[in-house]
Amino acid sequence: MATEAQALQLVALLENELIRRRGPIDRHNDYYRGKHPLKFASQEFAKFHGERYRDFSDNWVQVVADSPVERLTVTGFVADGDTSADKDLWKVWQVNGLDADSQLGFLGAVTGGRCFVLVWGDPDDPDMPVVTFEDASQCIVAYEPGSRRLRRAALKRWQDGNLDFATLYLKNQVWKFARPLAQQDKSPQMADVDEELKRWAPREMGDEPNPQPNPMGVVPMVELPNKPMLVEDPISDVAGVVAMQDAINLLWAQLFTASDYASFPQRVVLGAERPMIPKLNSAGEIVGKTPVDLDKFMVDRVAWITGKDARIAEWQAANLAAYTGIIEVAVGHLAAQTRTPQHYLIGKMANLAEGALLAAETGLVKRCDEKTLWYGQGLREVARLIALAKGEDAKAQALRSGRVLWAETESRSHAQMADALLKLKQLGFPFEWLALRYGLTPTEVADVLVMRERELEADPVTELTRNLTGGAPPAPATVPPADDEDVDEEPEAAA
């Protein structure tokens, strides 16, 4: 059991690490939302045009992040030793709204490098634990020394109103702390007061004890890493996109600027004085001259130029297609580096054959399969925590080596899928397995099986066969021998 001092020390350590992680997480989230500062521009260009393009972004980060998430769908959980999905686990999944929230969690992992899942028992409904996906900017898990899976502690820190809240999860305890938000721009006399306010204090919980016991006996928060490394932090899918995104934005800014200044042929007048407009008095007499307004001249594009030596020089309009060509190459590099199909980014497609389209998506499919492997390990532990929260220790043990069911990550037409499943059926695969392969959830499969049984019972041929066989299933059909085959005739006595 940890004392209050030990718990506060652990909170401070985890909070410092969480603050260190916040920088890249916030940056990648900003890029996903399209908040891109102008980068790689020269000082002169940034000085004169930086503010002009402050709110512009050609946001490819969002496309790269969304492309795998839209193909990641959990359809069920299977415990070790079972042949069908667990209905109780799926009920917990749906009651907690995780069909939708899991998509938010996967998106947070793709952009931030990781997300978390918290499981806790509901005292008002012991059979329905509370399961929530948590953002990497608010949560952190500490592991045992030398381990990447044995969880030692977990911290969730968030703000609400004028208070900071922190909940520390240990194997046998749960500590809850709070503190006022640190005030800014205080006088020097208030420095000591602010320092005191920064300290965590146990949160008042009413009738609940603080700390309260953890009946599950394990840390109830699980980390889902996006692209885990052996010794470094997980890698965000958009980490390598940011630099190319900045380059694309700069190219667009330069293209817009060039189109503004050089989209029309430029002319210059040589060997002539600046045109003047005579200034007249009330009697119509010339009393002076006024230079022509060059701004108005540029708008009207009309001028009278006098002088025998005056001449006009011209240079052609800029080739703006060079910019768009470079941008297209940059987007192609981005597609190759992130394994995102080019037709997701380029926006134009030729008459591709169906096989060619599937080949173009191979990289994305493999990328999604990798994520089902990484996320699946954590979700399998989440299923175990749900069983522990319900007090089902035997099921929890079976779920440790169970598996997570996912929808098909490869995009296929219904005709292709039906043809493939029909061939698998001919090989002997059972109908229930084929229905899961088709993408139905375990609940939908159970409903389909009931409907199928009802249709068979309503079929008169099936009913007649059952009556003749005493309820036994129909005998398998036999293939008659060919005429040229030798058939041993049974002895007459046997007949």
Note the total helix count.
17
Average of per-residue pLDDT values = 84
Strand percentage: 15-25%
DSSP E strands, number: 15
Helix content: 40-55%
What shape does the CA trace take?
flat
Main beta-sheet annotation:
6 strands, antiparallel
Structural class: alpha+beta
Amino- and carboxy-terminal Cα gap: 83 Å
Our Rg estimate from Cα atoms comes to: 35 Å
Q: Which spans have pLDDT < 50 for at least 5 consecutive residues? A: 189-193, 489-495
Describe what is shown at a glance:
With 495 residues, this protein is an alpha+beta fold.
Notes on the protein architecture:
By secondary structure, the protein is an alpha+beta fold. It is built from 17 helices and 15 strands. The strands form 5 sheets. Strands 4, 5, 6, 7, 8 and 9 form a 6-stranded antiparallel sheet that branches. Strands 3-2-10 form a 3-stranded antiparallel sheet. The protein has a two-stranded antiparallel ribbon with strand order 1-15. Helix 7 runs antiparallel to helix 9 and helix 14 (414-427) packs antiparallel against helix 15. The longest helix is centred in the N-terminal third of the chain and has 29 residues, at 4-32. The radius of gyration is 35 Å and the shape is flat.
